[in-house]
Every structure is written in C-alpha cells, then in structure tokens.
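subagent[fold] <- orchestrator: predict structure for attached chain, return tokens only, no commentary.
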Amino acid sequence: MRARVAQALDGIGGGGFRLAAMCALLFLVMVGIVFGRSGRDAIFIREIGSAKLPFMYLLTAVVMVGASGLYARVVDRMSRFRLLAVVLLAEVAVIALLRLLMILPHSAVAVAVFCVTEVLLIIPPMHFWTYGNDVFNPREGKRAFPIIGAAGMLGTVAGGLLTRAIAQNAGTPELFTAWALAGCLCLPAALAARPAKRDGNMRYAKDEKRDGPPAGRIGEVRELLSIPLVRTLALLHVPMYIVIYVIDYQFFSNLNEVFPDRDAMAGFLGVFTAVWSGSAMAFQFLLAGPLLRRFGVGRVALVHPISVSLGAGALVARSLIALPVSGVGGFRSLLAVFSKYSHISVKYGIDEPAYNLLFNSISRDRRGRSRALITGTVKPLCVALSGLFIIVMIDALGADIRLLSIATVALCAVWLVMSLRIQREYLQAMVANLESKNVELRDAAERQLTRSDIAGSRDRLLRDVDSDDDAVAVYACRLLADIMDEGVARRLAARLPAVRDRVKRAILSSIAGVRERDVVDAVMRAAGGSDPAVAAAALQALGRMGDPGVLPFVERFLDAGDPMLQGEAIVACLMIDPVRDPESGPMRALRSLAQSDDPRLRLRAAASIRAAGGRDLVPILLRLSESGDEAVRCEVIGALGETHDERAVPVLLEAAEDRRMRPYAFDALRRLGPIATSVVHAALDEGGMPRARCVALASLLGHIGNPRSIPVLLGLLDDRPLPVQYAAIGSIAAIKAALMAQEGVTEFIIMQLHFPADVRETVLERLSGFVVDVALDREHVAQLRALGGGPPALIVDALERWSRRRIETCMQCLSIATDAMTVSTAARRLRSRDRRVRAEAVEVIEGLCAEARGLARIIESSWREEQPAHAAEAARLFRELMMKPDGDEWYRACVAFAAGRLRLGGLSGELESIAGGEGARARVLAAWALRETGRPLAGGPDDKEMDAMNADMERILFLRSVPLFEEIEGGELRWISEIAAEETFFSGDIVFREGEEGDALYVIMHGSVKIVKGGQPPVTLCVLEERDYFGEMAILDEDVRSATVEVDRDARFLVIRREHFRTLLEARPQIAFAVFRTFSARLRDLQRQIVEGHAASRVEIK
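subagent[fold] -> orchestrator:
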C-alpha cells in the first residue's frame, strides 16, 4: 500500500496536493453516506417496520431511475466543478430539511427520509468519480484512483465507528446533523482539489464534441443485448438482486426483533459497516489481485455467488432453528448478520474489481453504453423485481421465512450456474478478441487473459490453429506457447503437414521448448520441406530443443546454398553443442560466412553470432565490425551489445561517433551496462577529446541511466563547451526519469539519495547562466531583424534553434532540481496552441524556484508582439555574435557569410579566428568575408573555392524563401542545397509532358512556366513564377506526370531528383517531417478551396 501511494504521488503534478484533497473529499463523502444510511434504516425499521421494506424496494427503484436520469440531463449543461458545488450545497440543504422534519411524529416522515436519502446516497458518489476524471488526466488517474478508493473505504470504516458514538450519545436524528456537517467540510476539500486553471484538465461538457443524436433507445438496448456477455449479465442480475434483497430483508427483520431502540440499532449498523468495509478493504488489497492473476476474471466472478450461497444457507439454518431471539449475539442473529456480511464484504472487496474487468472484453464503442445499461436500467428493474418477489411470496402466497430462505438458496443455484456461463462467455469473448483485426481489442485480451484462462480455452485455441485466417491461427499458437506441455506440443506437431507455411512457422516457434521424441521427429520432417522459411524455423526449433541426437541432421544444412538456412544451421549447432571446437564444422562455416566478400553472407554471419551468443565469438564480431556495409555494421553493433565483453566497448564508442550508427551503438552500450559505464567515465575524466565525441559520450550516460554517472556528469558543467554542458544536463535528467520509473520508488527518496542539496545547487547555478544566454539570444535576434532580411535571416534561424535548445536544457535543470512531473506537464503545455494554456504553464514554471522566474519571463515575452529593436551598430553586434562560445560550424558560417555580404569592417580579428578554426564551410566563408571587406587572408582558400561556397550560401538563402521549405531551418537547408542541381531552360521549352514518368522536383529560381493540361487546344491551368515549385509528388511516388510544364520566360531551376531526396531523408528524417507538414498544409488549403468553390457553385446554381 505504501509503495502504491508513493507511485501515485510521483505521477501527479503539484506534489500530490490534489491527490490529498480528493482523498479527503471522498473520505468525507463516504463518512456522510454511512451516517445517512445507518440513520435512515434505523428510523424506518423502528417507525414503519421491516415488513414494509419490499414496498420501499419498489419505490427506491423508481427513485434510482429518476435520480440517474436527472443527473444525466444536468451533467452535460454545466462545468463539473460547478455541478459538484451545487450537489454538495443541495445535499447539505436537503439533509438540514430532513432533520427538521424529524421533529414531526408521523410515519410519512420516515418514508420521505428513506426515499430522499436514497437520492443523496446515489448522486454525490456518482458525480465524484465523474469529477475525478477531470481533475486527473488518464495517466495520473491510473496512479491516483486506487489510492482515492482506499481513502473512501477508510471513510466508510471511520463513518461506521463514529455512527455508534453519535447515535448512542446524541440520538439517531443527530446522524443527519453530522452528515450535514460532513457535507459542509466537503466544500473546502472540493475547492482544494480543483485544478488550477494552468493544469488544463477541467473539461466542460458543453464544450465537448458530441457524436450526433443518439440512436433510438429500444434499438440501442437491442444492439447491446445482442452481445452474449451483456445479455447474460443482464439475466444474471435478476436472481442476484432477488437473493441480495431477500438477505437484506431478513437482516433488517432480525434487527427489528433484536433492537427495540433505534439509537442502539443505528449504533450497531455503524459498527457493522466498519467491520464489513474494513474486511472489504483487506480483501481488495490482499486477495483480489492474486486471485485475478492466478485464476482470471471469469473464475473470480464465481466467488461472490459462492459466498452469498453460504449466507443463504445460513438463513435456511436460521429458519430451521427454533431458538428465541436473545440479542445480537444470539445464534439466530449471528446467522442473519453473517448472511449480510457474506454478500457485502465480498461484493466490494473481490467482486467489484472482477466485475469491472468483465467489460474489457467489449469493444470501446459499446463498453460504456453496456455498463450504463446494466447500472442505469437493469439494476433498478431488478431491485423492483426483488421487492415484488418478496411481496408475492409473503403477502400473496403466504410463504414463511423458511420457504423464503429455501427459495433464496434455489435462486443462488441459478445465479451460480449463470456465473459459470458468464465465465465461458467472457473467455469466448476474449479469445474472439484475440482473433479480431481490432488491434486495441486484441492487445487488451492478451494483457488480461491469464495462464489459467488460456488453459481453460485450450481446445478452442487448438481449433483456431486450423482457422482459414492465418492471423487467427498465429495468435492461437502464441497463446498456446504459454501453456505448452508435451500433450499440446504433440497435437500441434501433428498439424504441421496440413497447415499453411505461415502457420507452420508459428507452430514451430511455439513447440521449440519441448524435447519430446514425436515432436522432434515432426520438426525434423518440417526442416526437410521445400519452403526455406519453414526449414529455417524448424532449425531454430531444433536448436532450442538442444537434443544432441539431431546434430548430424542439422549439420547437413551447413553446406546449404541458401544463406538463411546455413546461418540457422550454424546457430542450431552452436546451441546444441556448447563446446564450440574452433575446428568443428559449424565454426568453420561461420568463419567462412564472416570472411565472404558478399555483404549478405557477412550479414548472416553477424546475425548468427547474435542469435547464438557467447564471448568466444567476439573476435569474429570485431573483424566484422570493419565492414563497410551499413546493414552488417548495424547487426554487429547489436550482437556486441549482447556479449557483455569489455572488448566490445571501444568498437561501440567509435560507432557512436557516426550519426547514422549512434542510436544502435547507444542501445548496445546501454545493454552492456556497468562494463560500458566505467569505460565512458574514464574517457570523460581524461578530457582532451574532440567536442563532438565528448557530447556523444555524455549523452550515452543518459541512455545507460546509471546513477553512478551523476558525479561525472556534474564535472562536465565546469569549464566545458556549452554543448557538452547541455548533453550533461540532459543525461542527468534522463537518469532521474529512469529512477522515477522504477516501481515503488518515490521522488523524495530519489532526491535524498542521488540529488542532494549540493547537486541541486550546482544545477540551479548553471540554470541561471543558461537563462542569461537565452535572454542574450533574444536580444540578438531582435537586433538582427532590425537589420532587415537577407543573410542575417540565416543567423536568426541558427540563434532561434540554439535558443530552443537552451530552453529545453533549462527545463531539464528544473526537472532535476524540482518536481519532475510538474515540469514535464508544464513543458508539454508550453507547446499548446491555446495562448491561455501556455500562459498558465509559464505561471507554473515561475513558481518552481527563484531561478526559474527569469526563464518564465523570457518564455512569456516570446509570445508577445515583437517590439521593433533599435538598430545596433552592426560591427559591434557581429562582434558579439562571433564571440558566442557555443556556436557550431553552421552558426559561425552564417555569421561570416552575413558579415561579408554586409561588408562590415573592423571584424578582421574575429573573422581570422573563424578562418583558423574548425569546419571547412566556416573557414572558407570567413576567408571570403575578409576578401569582401578588403582584407584578404594570406594563404587562405583560392577565389574559386570561396566563390563556390558563397554561391552555395546564396542558394540556401534562396531556398529559405521558397514556401515548400519554410518549415526547414537554414542548417538543414544546406543538405538540400547539396543534392540540388541548377538547370536552365528557354522560352517555349517543355520541361516535361503529361503522362511521362516523373523523377524530380523543380523550384523556379528565375523566370516563369505555364502548367498546361489536356489535348487540343490545351488549357493553361496557371502560371508559376520565382520561388514557386512544381513536380513535388514525383519525389514521393513513381506515378506519371499529371500535366505538361512549358517555359513561359527563360528560366533557371533548382532540380532535386527522387533518389537523392530519398537518400537524404534516410540520413535526416527531420527534413521529411518538415516537408510533409508543408505538403499537408497545402493539401488542406486545396481541399478548402475546392469545398468553397463547390459551395459557391451551388449558390450560383440556385
């Protein structure tokens, strides 16, 4: 329980304050409900008598329907919080009125109290959970609701204990006074639980999108009752509620005999409530989970009817024992109390969790409506039937208590039989969901079905293996693998000759762990079949079986012409014979594959080593790592991550420097764990390495997630380049996130163990420096924009990119030093399109700590309309820009290019520094800028190289102005510039014709073209000019051209070929996302124009 509370607190923003407030609110609601129910029952039983209870059951059924219907109408017309306030205020007022009415000595008052109280017992809890779904988002709710539910159970226990004290000392009517006081206390708790506006969770029903008018009620009921599980649940409620209310009737009849005084009766009801609710809480936390995991939902649903059957048996025994009533401790009274306890404690402790899970077998679009049908329609009808049943049995047929009890036992038997049917239909529904093409249903079924459930459906699953739908058969094999034994394996193996190849592979994978003679023989026969994929799966299975007797058979495949079969045979042999003699056939075959000139064979060798595993194969992997083929290197990197060998670390660190290999290398190093961590620590402590390598290693420590790396990463915050510091902060934040993801670990403990005060102070100190850098970036951006467009725009792009990176690092600093979940929520809401939500997120950030206030002001100012900046003295501004310590090569190249274009003097020293630094582009452009300002660099690049680089920057600047590339930063546009070729056409030239195959995108640099469609005469659709583009679909698909393009005025184009563009996207997928966003916006705009044009044409027709 403590771990569950800790996990909930970690997962909720605001330090768990809202969770505490919601717990207090439900606690008070449940305390009041116990007061009201105990007082109501005691007053009615003493004033009217238990004989009239069946009539009240009929009446309360009507009240339940009316109250639920009224709530359903009102809940969609006002905010959740406002409705909660109205409900609580109305509750207090009505309770106060009932208390005043109790002064009148009239039986009608007892009836009114009974009926009105029923409404008050239904609406507040119902709306509480509706309100709770708005207070917490779904992720928070999964953590919070079990804790809030436990608080409600504690409220029931406390209310029961207080009921006795109040009733015996102040009288039963004062329970309603206490209930009203509890309702008053609910109001401040509800206000405290209300999310601040910045949380953005509160939903208003009137603003929610509705799906349209509901279908006819009768048609909807028919639709839902067509679901077998729902139909059976509806029918099951009839005997269930009759049994429950007969027990209720006899329980109160017994209390009527035992307690002549209503105060004593109310006190007993309070104690009884405390006992059963305490038991239910214990059952829920100690038994419900283990029972559900061990026996599954279907079987656990049988616990309630079995328990109630024992209670019904106790009622029969009570009716047969002719003993006088001798107080609540008498034997006959204890039997009546036990019958009530057997129902209510098990219902809320075990049956409710299982009952709720039953609905998961129903598709989402029907799940909520099915639950509403059972709760809002079937349950009231069954309550009414229960009252009618008791009236008919006692008043019409003259049955005594003995006959009524025997009838109850018979109904328990019906209930139990129908529960068995529920179990079968639940399992059938879940297995059917496994066969569904609906991924959500299929995944939910896989998660919820237990091993016991699967075993109970074994015959059904074995039949599904023969299904005509391969997907169904494959899923059945996957589930059967969880309960695999020799019997199941033999039955599956017997099906191998008859099923299709895909199903054969699934069967072979499922039975691979069973080393039984008949099964092994069947797998060997499958290996000898004609399909290579089936044979490969059979060899995999033989390897996992580990039967030495099949080794000669498997070795026959070492000389197979198919590399896949050869590789699987090598793996199988190495798994069967762990000795691995270097001169054995499998090892020779493996070395032969690894030394092949064919990259496909080397790839197979690497995959075989990865599957077989073992440190003795590392030397072969190290040789394979030198391969120039990218696929082979990826497979080798993955295999090295499985070796747990320190020899793998240097190879993986080298691979991590390659941008394309870095994700695979990081993942492999993470799997190596402490072996890699110690090597990386040593490398970072030595220092002196290139900045890019240092950044990569610092980032790697975040992927590994070992808290021992925190001191090393903190050391990188001192006198290291800013990109290294950013990587170090990101990795520390990632380590904290990994620690918080662990089960049962609170953020408080994590902070004390791994992030003490000195660590937080260091991080917040760096945060202050980063905030200053962001503010300086903003100032420089404003001054550059005051200079106008052109080359400074590329610097603006670079600065804004760095500014976003800095802000991200600042948020990571806050997540390290303060509440990580709150920071995460605020960061997510900063990306909202709603200005109000963003402003509220800034308010959250501002309140985290003193160091965050400056960051909050900067973020907020970035959304305001930018004020024109005073044009700073250009040379001074560029001198500051060139002195930025964290500028990368592209940034320095942009500054040098802009300085040269603007011909700024007085920057010779700074430009010479760039010319002598890192990065070919920056060096050449700095030399070019020096030449343009009249101070050529001695010994620098020649004029041809400088002019070519300048032309490339001019082209990037042009690309930045093309609408197609407006979402792409200047730093990314250089890669597009590299693959673009310039082509010149003259007036009247045809660029391409309609119907021709397309393979290129054209951007107009100068001139214009006509887009022509159709035959004789052709129709000119439009004229495109400078910065327009055409042929864009050709770089995405291989369809033919949809129109002819003719040059109108002499034109020069930038041409991007499909194969070059696809190669670029593989290396830099972020460019693809930017281009696709532009395409999407263009298609939406076109669709809007079509719709508006269609609407306009309809108006004209009219």
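orchestrator: received. Logging for downstream: The mean pLDDT is 80. The chain is about 70% helix and 5% strand.
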